[in-house]
Amino acid sequence: MDLLAQSLRHAFIDQRQLGHAQYDPELIINQPDENIFLLNTLQEELDTSETFTFSVAFVTESGLNTLKTHLFDLHQRGIKGRLITSNYLDFNSPDIFKALLKIPNLEVRISDKEAFHAKGYLFEHKDHTSFIIGSSNLTNHALKTNYEWNIKLTTYHHGAIIHQMQAHLDKEWASAQPLTEDWIEAYANSFQPPKYRDTSILLDPAKNFIVPNKMQQPALDSLIELRQNGADRGLVIAATGTGKTYLAAFDVLETKPEKVLFIVHREQILHSAMASFKRVMHTEPDDLFGFYTGNKKDSQAKYIFATQQTITRDQHLHQFDPEEFDYILVDEVHRAGSASYQRIFDYFKPKFLLGLTATPERTDGYNLYELFDYNIAYEIRLQDALEADLLAPFHYFGVTDYEKDGELISETTQLKNLILDERVNYVMDKLTYYGLDKDKVKGLVFCSRNEEAKSLSDKFNARGYKTVALSGSDSQEVRTKQVNRLTSGLLDYIFTVDIFNEGIDIPEINQVVMLRNTQSSIIFVQQMGRGLRKHDGKEFVNIIDFIGNYKNNYLIPVALSGNSNRSKDAMRKTTVNTNFISGLSNINFESIAKERIFDSINAVKLDSMKELKEAYLGLKNELGRVPMLIDFETTNSFDPYLLANKKDNYPAFLASIKESDNTLSKAANDILKFLSREILPGKRAHELVLLNELAKESVDTLSLAKIQTILAKHDLSHDPITVQSVVRTLSTDYYAGSSKKTYQPGQVVTIVDEGITLSPGFQSAKKDSTFLHHLNDLITTATLLNDGYDKSSDLTLYQKYGRRDALRLLKWETQLVDQNIGGYTQDKARKIFTIFVTLDKGDDFTGAQVAYEDALLDPQTMTWFTKAPRTLASPEVKILQDADDWQIHMFIKKDDDEGTEFYYLGEVTPDVSTITQLEKPSGDGETRNVVEMNLHFKETIPRNLFNYLQ
C-alpha cells in the first residue's frame, strides 16, 4: 500500500514528494516531436495485463492494427480481454467488425445505447488495476497524432473507484449484443458511412494541372541554383513514391529545352512516365510526345521516352546527334555503372543531365556521385518522406515464420519445406489475422526463389485465392496484363522474387508480404516501397514480414530506421523502441520474431574488413574525398568506433585498404590507438576539452589549477577528484594489467608535481600535421558522440558502459581487472558501490559457481543475489543493510551475447526487509550461502528497455 499512497501524495497533495512510476497518475498527450503517444502506454499496459476491457465508441482498422501483435502475444499466454463498442453514427465500418471477429482472445459486444461515446481502457494486473479515460477512441489518429487528453490512474483491487468502474462495465457488457457474423451482415446492409470518417484521403482528385509537392518544390529550387552556378548535371535521391517523375517534368517545364530524352530501365514504366509529363505540361500537344522502344521509334518527337535496352544499341544510339538532346533524364540511375548505361553517358552531350534514384548505394564499387560531379540537388529518404506526408502510412508486422518439430525456416530450408501444406495454411492464417480481407487485398508476395513463388501461388489458388506467379522469364506483355488484373480486382496477389523490386509503379498495392530472407536493407526498402505510393481511397498499406531463423535478420531494424551505422546497440534500440517512425505509420513485432532479430544482432560480425571497406568506399564516393571519422558520424553511415579500432587506429585502417600510406611515427600511432579505444566513444567530455588544449602548439605543461579553470570554462565538473581522474586517464596511470601494457606507449601526459607535462611521444607527435589532423578528427567525433551523455553527471541513465569505463567515470583511482570485480565492487572511502548484473547467465555452471537468479520484477524493483559464499555477517551485506549514505549504482545487460557493456540503470536502494540468507546449489553438487534482497531503482526503467532486458 505504501507505494500507491506515495504516488497519490505526489500527484494530488505535494508534487515534491517522490512518487512511484508504476502507480503515478499521468496526463497523456500525444507529443510526436518527443515520440510520446497514448499508443505507447496502451501497448505497455496490454503487455503486462492479466485481462483487459476496452469501452470505445469508435474503432478503425488502422487503430486495431497497432495492437494486433500485442494481442497475439497475449493469446499465446492464454490472456483474454473484452471490447465494448457501438454502431453510433455508423462510424465503425463493417470491415472493422470483421477484423475484430478474427482476434481469438478478444470478445466483442455492441452497445445499443443511443449516443454511445465512451473512451476508456481498463487493465487488470496481478496486484493492481490501471485505467485510462479521456478523449481517445481506438483509432490510429487518436492514438498517435491527434491532440488528445487522457488520464491514467492506478488502484489496488479493493479500491472504490475501480469497483464502480467494473460494476458499470459489467452492466454495460450484460446489456450489449455479442458481435457475430450475422450481426455484421445485417449492419453492412444498412451501413451508411459518415462524411467525416476518421480516415485520410491520400491522393488528391485528378486535376487539369498540378503543382509541386513538399519534396518537389525545394528540389526544383536546388536544380535551378545548380544550373545558375554552371552545373550541367544533378542527382536527386528520393524515396519511392515521392514523385520523382513529376519532379523531372516540372524541371523540364522550368528549363524549356528544345528536345528531351527520358530513359527508363523497363518499358512497363514508360507509359505512366509519359502520362505524368503530359499532366504537368498540359498545354503541349500529344503529338510532341513519343516512345523509343523495341516496338516504336518516335525519334522526331520533342519528348522521347526510351528504354535503356533499346537506345543503348549502336544502331539506335547513332540515330541521334550527340548534342541532339538539351535535357536527358535517367530514372533508376543507380544502374549507371553497367556497360550499357556507360555507352549512353559517353555518347550524349546534353546541356543538362538529371539522375533520379531512391537507392544510390552501390556494392559494385561504381561511383554514382562522381558521374554527377557530386551535385546532389536534393535528398529525401523514407523517414523524411513519411514525415512530410508524401507516402501512404504503413503498418509493419514482424511475424514469426513457420516452425515444425523445432525446425525453423532459414536460408538453407529446402524448397519442399517452404511449400509444405502446413506452412501454406500457417501463412494464410497469419494473413487472415494481420491482413486485409480477400475482397479488398491487392498484394505482392516476395519469395526466396521462383519455384517457391509458383508452388505457393498454386496452393493459394487451390484454397480459394486468385493469384499468379511472375518471374524474369515472363514477357513484358504478360507482366503488364497480370498487373492490370491485380489493380482491377481480378487477382488478390502476385507472387514473385525480385522483378518488382523497382521499375514498376502500382499505386493500388495495399499489402506487401515478405516470405524471404532480408538480403539487404536496400532490397527490403525497395520491396516495402512497392506499397507506399498514395492512391485514392488507400488509407494505409500492410507490410507483413515472416521472420525465420535468418542470419540477416539484423538488417530489418536497419532498413526500417534508415540507420546504417552498424551499431548493434542502435539496432537493438530500433527493435525495442518502434515509436520512432513518423506520422500514422506503425511498426510492431511478435515477441518471438523480435527475439529472432536479437539473436541475429548478437551473432552477426559487423566489423569484417569487407563490411568496413564497403562502408568506407560508399561514403568516399558520396563525398568525393577520403572521409574522416566525423563524416561517418554526421552522415550516420557507419559506426566510427568500428572503423577506428579494426586496426590500431583510423590511419592504420586506411593504410590496410591501400587508401593511404601510414607515415605516422610509432609514438603517434600508439597515441591514436589509445585514444581510439578509450576516448573516442565520448563517454566523458573532460578528456576531450583537455586534449584540445594540449594539442595547441604553445602548450607543453599545465598546472592542476589551470586544468580546473579550463574545465570550468566548459561548465564541466572540476573538483580535485575529477581532475585527478582525467589526468590519470590521459597518463594511462588509471589502467592496470594488460590494459596498462597496451596503452602506456600511447600516454598523452605524465603527471608531475601539481600538474602535468606532455609525454615525449605526444610532444614529438604533435609536430606532425598529419597526426594533428587525425587527432582533431578523433576529438571532434568524440565530442559529437558526447552529446548523448549528461555532462552534469558522472554517468548517464540508460547509456552503456563496460566495467572499466564505469569505474573510471566514477573516479576509481586504478582500474580493477574485470575478473576481480565479478558482480560488484565498492570504494569504501567514498562510499560508492557498483553492481554489474548479467540477467541470463546460461546453464553452464561448473565447480563452485552458483546459478544466481537475479531478475527484474517490475520497472522499479529487482531481485538480486550476492556472491557466494556470503552471509548476513559479510562486509558488503552489512553495507547494504545500512546503506543510507552510500551510492549504489546498477549496471545490467541481458546476456553475454551483448558483449561487455551494461545498461546503466541508475542508483538503487536495498529493501532491508527482504534481505535474506539462503543456501543455493552450485555446479559441484554442494550448496553455498548467498544473500538475496530486493533493490528499488530511484529512476523507473523505461518500459521498452525493461521489456527488452526481461
Features:
950 residues; Rossmann fold; eight-stranded mixed sheet; alpha/beta; Endonuclease, Chain A; DNA binding; 20% strand; 39 helices
What does it look like?
The protein is α/β, with parallel strands linked by helices and 950 residues long. The chain is built from 39 helices and 35 strands. α23 (568-576) runs antiparallel to α24 and α29 (666-678) runs parallel beside α35 (769-785). The protein is globular and about 90 Å long. Residues 225-378 form the Helicase ATP-binding domain. One of its GO terms (molecular function) is ATP binding.
Break the fold down into its secondary structure elements and pairings.
Layout: H1 2-12, E1 26-28, H2 38-48, E2 51-56, H3 61-65, H4 68-76, E3 81-86, H5 94-101, E4 106-111, E5 119-124, E6 129-134, H6 140-145, E7 150-155, H7 160-175, E8 177-178, H8 181-190, H9 216-228, E9 233-238, H10 244-255, E10 260-264, H11 270-280, E11 289-292, E12 303-307, H12 308-311, H13 314-317, E13 327-330, H14 339-347, E14 352-357, H15 368-371, E15 376-380, H16 382-387, E16 394-400, E17 403-404, E18 407-408, H17 415-418, H18 421-434, E19 443-447, H19 450-462, E20 467-469, H20 476-487, E21 493-496, E22 511-515, H21 521-529, E23 541-547, H22 555-561, H23 568-576, E24 586-589, H24 591-603, H25 609-623, H26 629-634, H27 640-646, H28 650-656, H29 666-678, H30 686-694, E25 701-703, H31 704-713, H32 720-730, H33 737-743, E26 749-752, E27 755-758, H34 760-765, H35 769-785, E28 800-801, H36 803-809, H37 818-821, E29 824-827, E30 832-840, E31 855-858, E32 861-865, H38 875-881, E33 887-895, E34 902-921, E35 927-937, H39 943-949
Parallel strand pairs: 2-3, 3-4, 9-14, 9-15, 10-12, 10-13, 11-12, 13-14, 16-23, 16-24, 19-21, 19-22, 20-21, 22-23, 30-33
Antiparallel strand pairs: 1-7, 2-5, 4-8, 5-6, 6-7, 17-18, 25-27, 26-27, 28-34, 29-30, 31-32, 32-35, 33-34, 34-35
Organism: Aerococcus urinaeequi
Pfam family, one: PLDc_2
Keywords: ATP-binding, Helicase, Hydrolase, Nucleotide-binding
